[in-house]
Amino acid sequence: MSLVLPDIHERWSFTVAHSRSEATISDESTAWIESLGILSGPRMKAFRAANFGYFTAIVYGHFTDARHHRVACDLVNLLFVFDDLSDELPAQDTRTVAAISLDALCNWKMPRVAGEHPVGEMHRRRRLHFISSAAVLHKFMHDYDKYLTAVIAEAEDRDRRTIRGSLDTYLALRRETGAATCCFDLLLIPYEIPGRILRDSRITHLEMLGLDLVCVGNDILSFNIEQARGDTHNSVIVVMHERGLSSQDAMDFMGVWYREKVEEFCTAMRDLPPCGSVYMRDQVKMYVTAIANWVTGNYEWGLRSDRYFPAGQDPLGSGWVVPLLESSK
Q1: Average confidence (pLDDT) over 114-120
Q2: What is the C-alpha to C-alpha distance for residues 307 and 318, in angstroms, rounded to an integer?
Q3: Average pLDDT, rounded, for the chain
């Protein structure tokens, strides 16, 4: 059997940006991850093959400061490692590593206890504290706490073999488990946007749309491999169960849903709040454009990553038709 993927970026007008700091920063950050000893030999090889350094270079392509790029690269690497680790843990163990992670993030000046799980040391990164404003750091810490709470909820669903009952309830959790909110927080580092503007409903609505495009775009590209290994935390799978659809019909449904959100996002980009000055207006425009770039980079990397598509399986080259993988469960 085969699966036809929707061309969800057919009308997406934002092109890929690329940071010039990729090569050096990526190698340094990957070496840091390897030094922690969390990944075994084969897993470290797979981690390197996924090329998260390239991912960081395009989703944070507007960063011109190498220090900013290094913080972003460390966060992306950390999140992918933590995601793969937590995906294999029962809820109780997930609570343990989440508590260690949050404590290390908050108490970054304190050395970790000997014998503790290495996620503690992985989260004790000083770089973010040195380059971000107090407001951005506070926002990031708040959102990272929400991310860890959501990861625990996902683990509880996994333990119970529960599939979220509707797309809306699934997305409420997925926006957090994807950690995209935390990643968007880093986009603010180069800018000086007051909280009153960031809290404006027009900005929060655009951020929400960006989160949905990132999460569902990833779900569409990762669906095939995730359904094969029995994962259920995917919007296509949720829609299959909610509406009684086949995998192809559910994929088609989410493709239409995504394209509608693209139109909504582009409209929202033209409806920004009053900013009080040309300078601030430019800052806000650069921030929302950075969100659009994150959506672009997330999708473009996913298409080219062997994390979702094995070597020789190019969705564009095959006219978006891929073999439907057999379930291993």
Answers
A1: 95
A2: 18
A3: 94
Residue with token string 């220090």? 67
Phi-psi map region of 160: left, alpha, beta (phi>0 left; psi -120 to 50 alpha)? alpha
Residue 126: what pLDDT?
A: 76
Query: For residues 128 and 299, what is the distance between their CA atoms, to the nearest angstrom?
Result: 26
Helix (H) or strand (E) holding 105: helix 91-106
CATH assignment of 18-315, given 2.70.70.10, 3.40.50.720, 1.10.600.10, 3.40.50.300?
Answer: 1.10.600.10
Burial class (CB in 10 A: 0-12, 13-18, 19+), 122: buried
Which residues have CB under 8 Å from 270's CB, separation 6+? none
Please name the residues in contact with 62: beta carbons below 8 A apart, sequence gap of 6 or more.
17, 19, 190, 286, 289, 290, 293
The Cα–Cα gap between 281 and 192 comes to 11
**Residue 278, pLDDT above cutoff 80:** yes
Mean pLDDT of 157-164: 95
- Angle, helices 134-160/167-177, rounded to nearest 10 degrees: 130
**Rounded alpha-carbon distances, angstroms, from residue 257 to 5, 216, 239, 291:** 13, 9, 11, 19
Is 70 exceeded by the pLDDT of residue 329?
no
- Tokens of residue 191, six digits: 């800018």
Distance (Å, rounded) from C-alpha 291 to C-alpha 297? 10
Burial of 93 (0-12, 13-18, 19+ CB in 10 A): middle
Confidence of residue 102 (pLDDT cuts 50, 70, 90): very high
Sign of CA dihedral 191, 196, 198, 202: negative
The answer to whether 58 and 27 are in contact (CB under 8 A) is no
> How many whole angstroms separate alpha carbon 82 and alpha carbon 93?
13
Residue 7 exposed, middle or buried by CB count within 10 Å (0-12, 13-18, 19+)? middle
Instruction: Please answer whether residues 217 and 295 qualify as being in contact, where contact means their C-beta atoms are separated by less than 8 angstroms.
Output: yes
With a pLDDT cut of 90, the percent of the chain lying above it is 85
Between CA 147 and CA 128 the distance in angstroms is: 17
Residues 232 and 163: beta-carbon distance below 8 Å: yes
